[in-house]
Amino acid sequence: MVDKIISVQGKASVKNSGLTDANQTLMKITAWVIMAIAVTLSLYQLYTAGVAALTALVQRSIHLGAILTLTFLLKPAFPKLRKDKFSFSLFFDWVLVGLSIYCTFYICNNLMAIFERQGDWLSQDRVVSVIGTLLVLEACRRVIGLVMTGVCAISIAYAFFGPYMPELIIHKGYSIERIATTLWLTTEGIFGLPIGVAATFVFVFVLFGAILETTGGGAFFIDMAYALTGRFSGGPAKASVLASGFMGSISGSAVGNVVATGTFTIPMMKKVGYRSHVAGAIEAAASTGGQLMPPIMGAGAFLMAEFTNTSYLTIIKVALVPAIMYYLTVLIFVHYEAKKYGLKGQPKESLPKVRTVIKNGLHFIIPVMILIYVLMSNYSPMMAGFIAVVSTLLISIIANFIRWAVNGKDAVSLFRFGMIEFKLILKALENGAKNAIMVSVACAAAGIIVGMVSLTGMGLKFSSLVVDLSYGIEIFAILLIGCASLVLGMGLPVTASYIVLATLAGPALMDMGVPVLVAHMIVFWYSQDANVTPPVSLASFAGAGIAKANPMKTALTSWKLAKGLYIIPIIMAYRPLLGMGNNYELFHWQVIVTMITTTLGLVAFATALERYFIRKTTLVETLLFWLAAIGLFWPAYWADSAGFIALIIACALQKFHSITPTTT
Known about the structure:
Blueprint: H1 2-8, H2 21-50, H3 56-74, H4 86-109, H5 111-116, H6 123-143, H7 146-160, H8 176-184, H9 193-214, H10 217-229, H11 235-251, H12 254-271, H13 276-290, H14 300-308, H15 312-340, H16 354-361, H17 365-376, H18 381-408, H19 414-435, H20 437-456, H21 458-469, H22 474-489, H23 494-504, H24 506-511, H25 516-526, H26 538-547, H27 551-561, H28 564-574, H29 589-610, H30 619-633, H31 637-656
């Protein structure tokens, strides 16, 4: 642990760091404090999720106070600081920790008084509010970067300098007191809906993922994916898609998922013949899709449920089919890549045995099944997450105890076994809190933006601007939102990008008649595009680093593989893919027809883009596949019929006109 903290602060180890004895002691204390706070935060979140709920402002402030403390101790203010100034750096971080604790304590200790004097603030209220807001900005700078921090600062400046803004966005302006107290002492700013979701639903599911990963569940699902698909053409790539789909939903970060699962999947893909940049791109596209896959969707499902006042169960129901369509598109591209280059599956002998994998990890399926059952039984997401966490811990302990009783009694005593399990639980709780830092800081920072947008009325102005620029045409508005999300995604995490876009651009789609849930789903899908769209492509660059491939080449390939990310939201706007609007039910015949035509259209689109189906396509066949894709996507049944006919003809030509297969 101490070595890890030293590494975080830019040092290799205590022994070789060149630090004085006093500094080494300080580092040891810091390491223990980090572990204690992380474990305590996880236990606190479990308590409030499954035992007793707290007042919103108290719940959120304690959560954020702990997250800020972990941020300042784990993320140094000056990573490249010289060794002789190291003690000053850590001292500065501890000062910020003290301020974070005080600002949190101030809210909890004066809660009723704060409620009573809304608008009639004391000088101490103003000081604490300014300090708390600055602490969130500094945490944002350390965890997310200068771009997100700059956006938050600009939103505050816009609220202050309102009278001096251009006529299109002018407003009366607000004082520093009004801005700071709105952000820190109400639920309209930093402690608003975004951090509320992060401090309740999101954290328990992040903790669930961390416990599953720490106890071996992540390895189990990866092994299962390889055991099921590894022997087929392009098997490791298909296994990567399946494994990343599951783990990405839980991890809440496409980049984090690339790093976690890509370490295993990318070398396996390269081993069977995938080009380096293609292997990295497949992992990036698959990990990005994990954010779209129920039940967790990163943090999106919970945020969307709160924003749209829709039940969590409804969100995951309507999100499932589009997410499967996205993964189907990626799998098709992967399959064609394997066929074009003659990539075979791995020998059966080198793959994990399905029976062995199930035997060793069957108990990891039980918590997932319990989670699904609890969600389907209309329990709250918080309670579902609580039950999933507790059941995962209990089942893991029981499974390990049975193994110890059968095989390990002679090697390890019962006391030693208990200590190993206890340390494993502590590690899982610690990892859960650390994994939540990114999402929580992003949500707190996004609360600044949302608060200023609400205070100044910028949301209505921006929505009107989108409507005006798009001339009231849905497709143009959607494309504008896609471009905005790409720009925002260059500096904002997916969660923050979705919150900002939902606040600013979502109302524009609703003004055009798009149902509220469909509008939010479109915005959420496009908030993912910066992960795989050049020139930024954060997930692609992470995959390129592991694959040792050209980053831009990897980004362009992942952009191609993830085409479903751009097409499916447009279908949502024009056709009842989600079963929303005009009183459609999810299993209405028109909804089912839309699902079928969209799926066939994606197959035709991928085939036309890759110019490969059973064999390499001719020019005429490629043209037919393009026509089929356009017809099947077009929101008219006559176009669906024409597209389906074109697809049948193209497939028949592929099947019955023998042409010697060629590779490129």
